[in-house]
Design a protein that fits this description.
The protein has 10 helices and 13 strands. By secondary structure, it is α/β, with parallel strands linked by helices.
Amino acid sequence: MNHPVAGTDGGIVVVGSLNADLTIYCERLPLPGETVHGNGFAVNPGGKSANQAVAASLLGGNVRLIGAVGKDSNGEMLLASTRRAGVDVSGVLTSTTEATGVAVIAVDAAGENNIIISAGANGSLSPADIAAAGETFTGASVVCLCLEVKPETVVAAAQAGHDAGARVLLNLSPYAEIPEELAALADVLLVNAHEAALFLGADSSAMPDDDASTHDWDAVRRRFDERGMHRVLVTLGANGSVVLDSHADGGMVTRIAPTHVTPVDTTGAGDAFTGAVAARLAGGETLADAALFASVAAALATTKKGTQAAYPSVADVAKCLRGQ
């Protein structure tokens, strides 16, 4: 597989959320009703869409971000961070009535986390804002979406991307049922195993095991295909990912092996994966090649605390791939 260090050519438009991450580190995550002692606290730039935009830009993408922040210090922090990564933030609106969105995150000693988000200004982003930003989609190769803004706004952005001839990459997170209209517009669906089970109406225990065969995953591919999702990426955390491509002759399942690292903080690793996939698809790579590159990028992102500051460069990923 060829993974050049050069940047990608096609434009990427990311539409969605920008959040200030309020992160506390602790030995273990608290049980319901329990209080535990923390051993560190940080306020970092985050939000799924901002994270994906930064990851894609650091990995060579030409990225434009559409979203909304409040007129406050958190909004200023987020705009500065995304600009510093080379993202065009001219499409990010500033709300005068809503504060910047916030995520409250707890991270344990193994790097696992739980997250609660408050939408703030993210909730103000509307289909009318997407229509007003119509020229932003011109020339885009990939439009990258998640579900941290209003569903009708996601649909409008997917339609704008489709109309512009871009591939629509939908990260089904945080999980929610989506209208058939949005499913029909999504060219690539990106889910973790839990989200995949929810989408297919199955218990997570019914998903294939870590050592499942290609045959087992092909049954999952066929179920996605029946739901109208023909190209799907399923991330499996420390166990790599699976590419389910019904557009390939006869259908294709590709297992992507994990990149073994010692995780420090897994927050935003999925966003790093999504941004990396967007960058490589915009550069013309196949879905399987993009997933391999993204798997390495996501793994490297877990080796440092925080999200955007932890994301690797294209050279970092290329170096790791050469060492495999």
